[in-house]
Amino acid sequence: MHLNEDAKYRTSTQFRYWNFTPDSLASLRRNTNRAAVERVKAAFDRRRKARIAADKAQNGGEVTVVSELQTKEVECLTLEEEQKLLGYYCAQCLKMGKDNFKYPANVYYMKRFYLFNSPMTYHPKDILKTALFVATKTENHHQDLDKYCGQIGGKKPTLRDDVLAPEFILTQALRFTFEVRHPFRAVLPGHSQSAVQLQQALLSLPQTSGGPEIIHEVHQMEKRITEAHSIASDRYLKNAALLTDAYFLYTPSQIWLAAHLLADEPLTLFYLDTKFTVAPGSNSSAPLKTRVISTIRSCATMISNGDTPSQPTLEERAELTRVDKKLYQCRNPDKIDLIGLNKAQKRDATMDGKLEEGLAKKRKIEREKQEKEADDFWGPPLPNTGAPG
Amino acid sequence: MSRAVQRPGGAAPKRTEITDDGGEFHSYFDSPELRNVHKTDKTSDICPVCKSSRYLNPQMKFLVNPECYHKMCESCVDRIFSSGPAPCPIAGCRRTLRKAKFRAQTFEDVFVEREVDIRRRVAKVFNRCEEDFETLLDYNDYLNDVEDITYNLINGIDVEASEKKLQGYAEANRQLIDDNENRARKAATTYAARQAQVKEQSRLRREANMREEERERQERLEGQRNIINQLASRDGDAEQIVREGQIGLKRRHKTAIPDRRKPSASATKAEDGKLLYRGLKKKTEVEPERPFSPYAGLRIANEYSVVQDHYDAPWLSFAWQDERYLAGGFKIGDFYSRVFSEAFAGLSVFVDEEVAGRNLTGSFSATEGAVAAADQDVNMSDDIF
């Protein structure tokens, strides 16, 4: 059995879980937004009812004051507002990665997370730090957690729990698939290979005007290739491509070729020509080639659309501020305190790091018993799960 | 199945040649005259060629040649065929016989002798066994075919066609026939070895039993001697002394019984195990181990690129020259192949088409809606999934 590059890509989790059609991507986000709005409204409703009940109890069964806050329907973010906010935070994430760790951060953990979750449920500010931390771990830039907290800075100092509390939520939402197939590395061989092939093509040209000129051309050609490569990788792949939805809609090889196309179109087309050489007589790969090129072109359009200056303009900033304020009003009250939720999830949830005395004693006895049993020849007895047999 | 009948003596020369004039041969055998000759010969001890009788020469041995199965004495064979092939001396039989082919007659009836020869010859060629077949039905069909050929050859029906079939099969499957023969020989030797082992075990067991019995007998004798000694030396009731002694003897005997039985019991068990094994299917020959392939023969065939040994890439030159990288097992070739495979992975995968039919919510019911419906906000392990 043979496994070619395409088949290899099809086995990846990126293809299986994280590739979408534009329509399905849009509908997914719509659904997520709608569900989040429902949840936020339900949560507010619940709180309001609870408060009214409490008031009733306090005032002896009579509702005296119905405040404005209690009657006002909460106003939630629209999908567009969510996307704007996310775009800003993704750019922030990218910038943080570059500034602090000298590598283009894996923004796609954020993007994947917010496919199934809304900023109204989990604020991007909370998720950002965790996503970046997980990315440093998965992309070979691991930092000690304390060091990481010190490094990412911010107005308020970042605490360990700030980073760790949402980690499992994020991991779950990523469906435990950490691989993001980047086009960065892939662009390297494209460079060297196209250089080799161009050299061969040029050297095989009929020599009419003497040797030195041709060698001169080869040097020029190399310069051009290197330039195209650096533009493609630095300007497009490490910025715009990460911030757009390109990873959801295209494969890494299409993305790097699109970036290369934006950097130097004739060169890229020549390179693609060498990849889809048709055997004389057969006409099989010609339609494939046109399809690939059209896909790459549409990807290039998407990347160039996302190729905006990294700093938002004044109007954009004002808009973002407005959205952020709105978000402050409509956050899901159940999910604001992530650290608290995380602690509550753990056994013997404690708020100040101390267990109740009786419970601590019980745990100690349990632990000692377990240690003693672990020394037995056959180890401790199996836990009784109530299963038959 | 009678085709594997073994010659008791096993010393007779094996017949490898295939007679090609079976038809004529058979008509000759069918003649009533010959039948009569052989029937009358059955009881006689007189050589039909030289008329010498066993009465005068008790060492006389009769031989037959599978060409015509005419009986004659050893000295006649020596005399007539020592100087090369000669025609059969029996009147009316003009077959050319060779001395090497003469052998002692196993069966008194020459027809049985001939049938056994034919069966042996056929079985030598058709030597497949049951393990070679997928189902019992296939094997039975095969046996049926073989028996048809054998029967035809023995009874002279369509002899030429049958011979042709036999020879054609032998030609086509020479290698296989040899292999099967080797296998059978091996099986026979292992069987013999196993038999020897069983015999050795039972011998040891028997010896152990005998030793045990001997020991017991000695003990009993000693006990009796003790009783007698006590009777001689002790004062008191003789009967009492005898009873005590006998109780002691019995006790000793009782303890001895399980000792004696035990090894024999376990041995029969082992023997039973052996017997059980005998009927089992033989192990199929283990195929020679193939070279290990971690992906079960899956081969990675890059379509878009051929990775070369070296690329003149300035950003990599540090790696394949730096000992710190190389010492750790870094291979530049691996890096190249990985990078190239990444560069073209999914080049002609058109996501929007291939992913189109995917059921998003079905495969991943983690949208917030599902969670909101579940209303288990605090339990975060149910949050997403």
Please, could you describe this protein's structure?
The complex is a heterodimer of chains A (389) and B (385). Chain A has 389 residues and is mostly helical. Among the domains of chain A are: 79-180 and 326-350, Cyclin-like (Cyclin A, domain 1, Orthogonal Bundle), CATH 1.10.472.10; 204-306, Cyclin A, domain 1 (Orthogonal Bundle). Chain A is 67% helix and 1% strand. Chain A has helices at residues 5-10, 13-18, 22-58, 68-71, 79-101, 108-116, 124-138, 145-152, 160-164, 167-173, 187-203, 211-243, 246-249, 252-263, 265-275, 285-306, 314-330, 338-345, 357-374; one strand spanning 2-3. In chain A, α14 (252-263) crosses α15. The radius of gyration of chain A is 28 Å and the shape is globular. Chain B folds into three domains: 22-172, Zinc/RING finger domain, C3HC4 (zinc finger) (Herpes Virus-1, 2-Layer Sandwich); 194-278; 303-367, no CATH class. Chain B has 14 helices and six strands. Chain B has helices at residues 22-30, 32-41, 74-81, 110-125, 136-155, 159-172, 174-233, 238-278, 317-321, 323-327, 332-344, 351-354, 360-363, 368-374, and strands spanning 62-64, 71-73, 86-87, 96-97, 103-104, 299-300. In chain B, the strands form two sheets. Chain B has a three-stranded antiparallel β-sheet with strand order 2-1-5. A two-stranded antiparallel sheet of chain B has the order 3-4. In chain B, α7 runs antiparallel to α8. The radius of gyration of chain B is 42 Å and the shape is flat. The two termini of chain B are 68 Å apart. Mean pLDDT of chain B is 74; it is low at 1-25, 39-43, 258-281 and 362-385. Classes of the chains: A mainly alpha (389), B mainly alpha (385). At the A-B interface, β1, α1, α3, α10 and α11 of A face β6, α11, α12, α13 and α14 of B. Chain A: Residues 345-372 have a biased composition (Basic and acidic residues). Chain A: Residues 345-389 are annotated as: Disordered. Chain A: Residues 198-304 form the Cyclin C-terminal domain. Chain A: This is Cyclin C-terminal domain-containing protein.
